[in-house]
Amino acid sequence: xxxxxxxxxxxxxxxxxxxxxxxxxxxxxxxxxxxxxxxxxxxxxxxxxxxxxxxxxxxxxxxxxxxxxxxxxxxxxxxxxxxxxxxxxxxxxxxxxxxxxxxxxxxxxxxxxxxxxxxxxxxxxxxxxxxxxxxxxxxxxxxxxxxxxxxxxxxxxxxxxxxxxxxxxxxxxxxxxxxxxxxxxxxxxxxxxxxxxxxxxxxxxxxxxxxxxxxxxxxxxxxxxxxxxxxxxxxxxxxxxxxxxxxxxxxxxxxxxxxxxxxxxxxxxxxxxxxxxxxxxxxxxxxxxxxxxxxxxxxxxxxxxxxxxxxxxxxxxxxxxxxxxxxxxxxxxxxxxxxxxxxxxxxxxxxxxxxxxxxxxxxxxxxxxxxxxxxxxxxxxxxxxxxxxxxxxxxxxxxxxxxxxxxxxxxxxxxxxxxxxxxxx
Length: 425
Hints:
- The protein is α/β, with parallel strands linked by helices.
- The chain has helices at residues 5-8, 21-24, 29-35, 52-63, 77-90, 105-117, 130-133, 136-139, 152-164, 179-188, 193-206, 219-226, 239-252, 256-268, 272-287, 292-308, 314-325, 332-345, 406-424, and strands at residues 42-45, 66-71, 93-98, 120-126, 143-146, 175-177, 215-217.
- Strand 3, helix 6 and strand 4 form a beta-alpha-beta unit.
- The termini are far apart.
């Protein structure tokens, strides 16, 4: 039985890894570990199809160590013992342990001494947050790296590579892939390269040759093979981004009917990750301090949608969109932060005042660190007149409260009271 395209195209070394340059690029942590031959056990976490197994395979290929794959949920302690025996004979084995968050105590206890000795280099793969789901004993013996969803350019590069590769890919097939079909293949799988390659292989092998002897893959064929509809059949392929833009602008403009329309388009396209990310952005970017509770409800709706999946996910998503649309709006907080960042980038920072510096170490008093600091809770209204900003920008003002929601109105009133106290002092 022939292995799937995604399996055959796994990278043989770090140079063949698609994306994840923050980990495997020149000068980055995993490449440094491989080049120095100072590998340590690690946990890679991120969405499916983003390269966790590929990175493990590439590390093994780049180091020429034996490479074994097990699943923490389904493989037994005996399977781990076999790997350990091989490591004793060969020196070092790289073990990709999938679903590492499912590792039970018995297997964990067996594995720990082998990780400590370095005989087994474990690369744990998980879609769960390891800081929450993985036992501290394992966590403390590994480095944790987040694997990001691949972007459109990464997937296009991988698809073109698979089409050209005659040894492992589809290079022997006379494929003609339309540009709009290629873009949809890259976008519809939401950064999941495995799904993109699976869709490409299905389309290639299930489409008959045309009169000219080519396997012509059109947008409609790719839509069928990845089970995602394109938002619209536009020539330049910009509709995907146009609909997302219109979606946010409709919410920001409080047009609930338009927002639901664009949400409907995204639902029909099956773009759940994009919808969820955009809703959370809007909750904090456009509604912000005018109604923080709406942003919190949006996060809850997104979590419910992700657990439910389509078609039921549309229900909490619709609730969140109506809630955000009809909520008061404020962007004051992030505009204030952007103003502060602009100052910093222009060199307007300066030294932290001595009375605010850390004083919890020997010799701090001799350096005048922390001396003169006044503890606000010891004063009326938990406020005392003292300088917090560096001398260089001590009179800077970044935050400009808006009066579009009761919550921020209250914040603005307190902000004004504090400014008046300063003037009196």
